[in-house]
Amino acid sequence: MWSGYIPSSLDVSPGVRVLDGSHPWGGGTRTIAGRESTGVPREAGANGPIYQEFYHDAQGALEHFKIHPNGDAIGALHHPDVGDFDLTGDIAAKLRNQHPEVLGDLQGFISKLKKISESPNRIVLASDSRQQRAAVRLDYDGAAKRWLLTAYDKGARRPTGETTDAPGSLGSGEGTNAPPGRPPVPPSL
Fold first, then answer.
1. Is 0.70 surpassed by the pTM of this model?
2. Domain co-membership, 35 together with 122
3. pLDDT, tens digit, for every residue of 32-64?
4. Which end of the chain is more exposed for a tag (fewer CB within 10 A), N or C?
Protein backbone atom coordinates (compact mmCIF):
# COMPACT_ATOMS: atom_id res chain seq x y z
CA MET A 1 0.00 0.00 0.00
CA TRP A 2 1.40 3.37 -1.04
CA SER A 3 1.57 6.02 1.67
CA GLY A 4 4.20 8.44 0.41
CA TYR A 5 4.08 12.21 0.23
CA ILE A 6 2.79 14.15 -2.76
CA PRO A 7 4.86 17.31 -3.32
CA SER A 8 2.72 20.45 -3.12
CA SER A 9 4.16 21.55 -6.47
CA LEU A 10 2.31 18.73 -8.26
CA ASP A 11 -0.99 19.36 -9.97
CA VAL A 12 -3.34 16.95 -8.22
CA SER A 13 -6.92 15.88 -8.72
CA PRO A 14 -9.66 17.45 -6.55
CA GLY A 15 -9.95 15.79 -3.16
CA VAL A 16 -6.38 14.48 -3.12
CA ARG A 17 -4.50 15.53 -0.03
CA VAL A 18 -1.14 17.22 -0.38
CA LEU A 19 1.37 18.34 2.21
CA ASP A 20 2.43 21.96 2.43
CA GLY A 21 5.13 21.59 5.10
CA SER A 22 3.41 23.67 7.80
CA HIS A 23 2.69 20.70 10.09
CA PRO A 24 5.48 19.46 12.41
CA TRP A 25 5.27 16.03 10.74
CA GLY A 26 5.53 17.56 7.26
CA GLY A 27 1.81 18.14 6.76
CA GLY A 28 -0.42 21.10 7.23
CA THR A 29 -3.80 22.10 5.96
CA ARG A 30 -4.61 23.04 2.40
CA THR A 31 -7.88 23.39 0.62
CA ILE A 32 -8.22 21.41 -2.57
CA ALA A 33 -11.41 21.60 -4.62
CA GLY A 34 -13.28 23.25 -1.76
CA ARG A 35 -12.37 20.60 0.83
CA GLU A 36 -9.95 21.19 3.64
CA SER A 37 -7.16 18.68 3.85
CA THR A 38 -5.40 17.65 7.04
CA GLY A 39 -2.15 17.10 5.17
CA VAL A 40 -2.03 13.42 6.06
CA PRO A 41 -0.61 11.46 3.12
CA ARG A 42 -3.30 9.77 1.03
CA GLU A 43 -3.37 6.01 1.43
CA ALA A 44 -4.32 3.70 -1.38
CA GLY A 45 -6.33 0.55 -0.99
CA ALA A 46 -7.67 -2.17 -3.27
CA ASN A 47 -10.15 0.28 -4.83
CA GLY A 48 -7.74 3.21 -5.17
CA PRO A 49 -7.42 6.30 -2.95
CA ILE A 50 -8.89 6.09 0.55
CA TYR A 51 -11.07 9.13 1.28
CA GLN A 52 -11.54 9.94 4.98
CA GLU A 53 -13.19 13.29 4.22
CA PHE A 54 -16.55 11.73 3.26
CA TYR A 55 -17.23 10.30 6.74
CA HIS A 56 -21.05 10.31 7.14
CA ASP A 57 -21.32 12.21 3.82
CA ALA A 58 -22.68 9.70 1.33
CA GLN A 59 -23.96 12.40 -1.04
CA GLY A 60 -20.55 14.08 -1.09
CA ALA A 61 -18.91 10.72 -1.85
CA LEU A 62 -21.40 10.00 -4.64
CA GLU A 63 -20.66 13.39 -6.20
CA HIS A 64 -16.92 12.83 -5.88
CA PHE A 65 -17.13 9.39 -7.49
CA LYS A 66 -18.90 10.88 -10.54
CA ILE A 67 -15.64 12.68 -11.37
CA HIS A 68 -13.11 10.32 -9.74
CA PRO A 69 -14.54 6.81 -10.12
CA ASN A 70 -11.95 4.96 -8.05
CA GLY A 71 -11.55 4.91 -4.32
CA ASP A 72 -13.10 4.13 -1.00
CA ALA A 73 -15.08 6.64 1.08
CA ILE A 74 -14.51 5.42 4.63
CA GLY A 75 -17.62 5.50 6.84
CA ALA A 76 -19.69 7.40 4.27
CA LEU A 77 -22.79 5.51 5.39
CA HIS A 78 -24.23 4.48 8.75
CA HIS A 79 -27.03 2.26 10.01
CA PRO A 80 -27.81 1.60 13.70
CA ASP A 81 -27.80 -2.18 13.17
CA VAL A 82 -24.59 -2.16 11.11
CA GLY A 83 -22.51 0.80 12.30
CA ASP A 84 -20.39 2.83 9.89
CA PHE A 85 -19.68 1.34 6.47
CA ASP A 86 -17.85 2.40 3.35
CA LEU A 87 -18.94 3.37 -0.15
CA THR A 88 -16.61 2.41 -2.99
CA GLY A 89 -16.34 4.10 -6.36
CA ASP A 90 -17.34 0.97 -8.24
CA ILE A 91 -20.48 0.53 -6.14
CA ALA A 92 -21.36 4.22 -6.65
CA ALA A 93 -21.12 3.56 -10.42
CA LYS A 94 -23.27 0.44 -10.06
CA LEU A 95 -25.94 2.43 -8.22
CA ARG A 96 -25.87 5.19 -10.87
CA ASN A 97 -26.23 2.65 -13.69
CA GLN A 98 -28.55 0.04 -12.19
CA HIS A 99 -30.34 1.58 -9.21
CA PRO A 100 -30.59 5.37 -9.65
CA GLU A 101 -33.77 5.42 -7.55
CA VAL A 102 -31.65 5.35 -4.35
CA LEU A 103 -29.26 8.18 -5.24
CA GLY A 104 -31.36 11.21 -4.23
CA ASP A 105 -30.73 10.52 -0.54
CA LEU A 106 -28.73 7.32 -0.19
CA GLN A 107 -28.23 7.73 3.57
CA GLY A 108 -31.95 8.42 4.04
CA PHE A 109 -32.80 5.35 1.99
CA ILE A 110 -30.48 3.17 4.10
CA SER A 111 -31.72 4.68 7.38
CA LYS A 112 -35.31 3.64 6.68
CA LEU A 113 -34.39 -0.04 6.37
CA LYS A 114 -34.24 -2.70 9.10
CA LYS A 115 -31.83 -5.61 9.48
CA ILE A 116 -33.55 -8.77 8.25
CA SER A 117 -30.61 -11.18 8.13
CA GLU A 118 -26.94 -11.54 8.92
CA SER A 119 -24.44 -14.13 7.74
CA PRO A 120 -20.70 -14.38 8.30
CA ASN A 121 -20.07 -12.18 5.26
CA ARG A 122 -23.03 -9.80 4.96
CA ILE A 123 -25.93 -8.00 6.55
CA VAL A 124 -29.15 -7.54 4.58
CA LEU A 125 -31.39 -4.56 5.29
CA ALA A 126 -34.96 -4.24 3.99
CA SER A 127 -38.15 -2.28 4.37
CA ASP A 128 -41.20 -3.88 5.99
CA SER A 129 -42.60 -4.59 2.51
CA ARG A 130 -39.22 -6.03 1.40
CA GLN A 131 -39.45 -3.78 -1.70
CA GLN A 132 -36.46 -1.63 -0.63
CA ARG A 133 -33.25 -3.47 0.17
CA ALA A 134 -29.56 -2.99 0.79
CA ALA A 135 -26.71 -5.37 1.50
CA VAL A 136 -23.53 -4.60 3.44
CA ARG A 137 -20.52 -6.87 3.06
CA LEU A 138 -18.52 -7.59 6.20
CA ASP A 139 -15.24 -8.47 4.48
CA TYR A 140 -13.24 -7.55 1.41
CA ASP A 141 -10.89 -10.12 -0.07
CA GLY A 142 -10.89 -11.93 3.28
CA ALA A 143 -10.08 -8.87 5.41
CA ALA A 144 -12.63 -7.40 7.83
CA LYS A 145 -14.30 -4.39 6.20
CA ARG A 146 -17.88 -3.10 6.12
CA TRP A 147 -18.94 -1.75 2.72
CA LEU A 148 -22.14 -1.23 0.77
CA LEU A 149 -22.68 -4.01 -1.76
CA THR A 150 -25.98 -2.78 -3.20
CA ALA A 151 -29.12 -0.78 -2.51
CA TYR A 152 -32.31 -0.81 -4.58
CA ASP A 153 -36.06 -0.34 -4.65
CA LYS A 154 -37.85 -3.27 -6.31
CA GLY A 155 -40.89 -1.06 -6.75
CA ALA A 156 -39.01 1.48 -8.85
CA ARG A 157 -39.96 1.11 -12.48
CA ARG A 158 -38.23 2.20 -15.64
CA PRO A 159 -40.34 3.73 -18.43
CA THR A 160 -40.49 0.28 -20.07
CA GLY A 161 -42.13 -1.10 -16.93
CA GLU A 162 -39.09 -3.18 -15.98
CA THR A 163 -37.52 -2.95 -12.56
CA THR A 164 -34.03 -1.58 -12.18
CA ASP A 165 -32.83 -5.03 -11.10
CA ALA A 166 -30.11 -6.19 -13.44
CA PRO A 167 -29.11 -9.80 -14.04
CA GLY A 168 -26.79 -10.80 -11.22
CA SER A 169 -28.03 -8.22 -8.69
CA LEU A 170 -29.41 -9.24 -5.31
CA GLY A 171 -32.90 -8.35 -6.50
CA SER A 172 -32.83 -10.37 -9.69
CA GLY A 173 -32.53 -13.77 -8.04
CA GLU A 174 -29.95 -14.96 -10.55
CA GLY A 175 -26.22 -14.84 -11.15
CA THR A 176 -23.79 -13.23 -8.77
CA ASN A 177 -23.52 -9.91 -6.99
CA ALA A 178 -19.80 -9.23 -6.96
CA PRO A 179 -18.64 -5.66 -7.56
CA PRO A 180 -17.16 -4.99 -10.97
CA GLY A 181 -13.72 -6.54 -11.39
CA ARG A 182 -14.13 -8.94 -8.46
CA PRO A 183 -14.73 -12.70 -8.45
CA PRO A 184 -18.39 -13.79 -8.15
CA VAL A 185 -19.92 -13.97 -4.68
CA PRO A 186 -22.82 -16.42 -4.44
CA PRO A 187 -26.03 -14.80 -3.11
CA SER A 188 -26.91 -15.81 0.43
CA LEU A 189 -30.40 -14.38 0.65
1. no
2. no
3. 444 554 434 468 888 889 999 999 999 999 999
4. N
